[in-house]
């Protein structure tokens, strides 16, 4: 078990009967968020702790709705890639009380969204990993926020290797959107815990 995972496990809130706690795993592109959440899930399974993990990238809208919209590319990434208000009302706002969620999950191969039903235990830890989690519309739903910090050169190497994007595409869309997030939201300063994501994913 790596140091980052131990740090996170150490601060997880204890559950009371009938209680759900929502934990965010925030961070910029390719910082190691999903790797952390997958390792965390394995540990919680071993400890028989009820939990559910969601990936915010599973909820992006179809390509035609987020590319070529007439807006700047960074704006498409930050403001349009997800239906922010829909998720606030139909996902985040339902996490504490709903027995079952009906969520449109995105399929990258077919560029379609299909509704799936997710049942939640009455008592569980709910983890959500993804970029921009601390935006104003969502941040108050979390009981605990973790920020995965990663050196820029490490993230860039991962992006070039896994995203099949040119440097120009990364800068005009992803990096500008993330710079806007850093400047307007200050996610590192708002987080309850900052952990390192520099180890190879």
Q: Which features does this protein show?
A:
single chain; 201 residues; alpha/beta; Rossmann fold; 5-stranded parallel sheet; 7 strands; 22% strand; kinase; PRK/URK; Kinase; P-loop_NTPase; transferase
Ends distance: 14 Å
CATH topology: Rossmann fold
Could you spell the SSE succession in H and E letters? HEHEHHHEEEEHHHE
Strand order of the largest sheet: 2-5-1-6-7
Query: Please, how many domains?
Result: 1
Please state roughly what percent of the residues sit in beta strands, choosing from under 5%, 5-15%, 15-25%, 25-35%, 35-45% or over 45%. 15-25%
- Content-based structural category: alpha/beta
CATH superfamily: P-loop containing nucleotide triphosphate hydrolases
Instruction: Identify low-pLDDT runs.
Output: none
User: Based on DSSP secondary structure assignment, what is the total number of beta strands?
Assistant: 7
Helix proportion range:
25-40%
User: Could you tell me the radius of gyration in angstroms?
Assistant: 17 Å
CATH architecture: 3-Layer(aba) Sandwich
- Rough shape? globular
Q: Give the CATH level 1 class.
A: Alpha Beta
- Please tell me the overall pLDDT: 94
* Number of H/I helices: 8
Largest β sheet strand count, sense and barrel closure: 5 strands, parallel
């Amino acid at each position: 078990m790596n140091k980052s995972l131990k740090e996170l496990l150490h601060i997880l809130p204890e559950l009371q009967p009938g209680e759900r706690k929502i934990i965010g795993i925030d961070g910029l592109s390719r910082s190691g968020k999903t790797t952390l959440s997958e390792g965390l899930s394995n540990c919680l399974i071993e400890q028989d702790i009820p939990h559910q993990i969601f990936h915010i990238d599973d909820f992006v809208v179809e390509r035609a709705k987020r590319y070529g919209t007439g807006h700047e590319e960074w704006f498409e990434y930050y403001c349009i890639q997800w239906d922010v208000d829909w998720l606030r009302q139909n996902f985040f706002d339902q996490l504490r009380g709903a027995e079952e969620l009906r969520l449109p999950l995105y399929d990258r191969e077919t560029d379609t969204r299909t509704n799936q039903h997710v049942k939640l235990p009455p008592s569980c830890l709910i983890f959500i990993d993804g970029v921009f989690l601390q935006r104003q519309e969502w941040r108050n739903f979390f009981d605990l926020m973790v920020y995965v910090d990663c050196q820029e050169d490490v993230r860039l190497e991962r992006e070039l290797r896994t995203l099949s994007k040119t440097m120009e595409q990364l800068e005009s869309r992803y990096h500008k959107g993330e710079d806007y997030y850093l400047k307007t939201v200050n996610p590192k300063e708002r987080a309850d815990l900052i952990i390192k994501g520099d180890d190879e994913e």
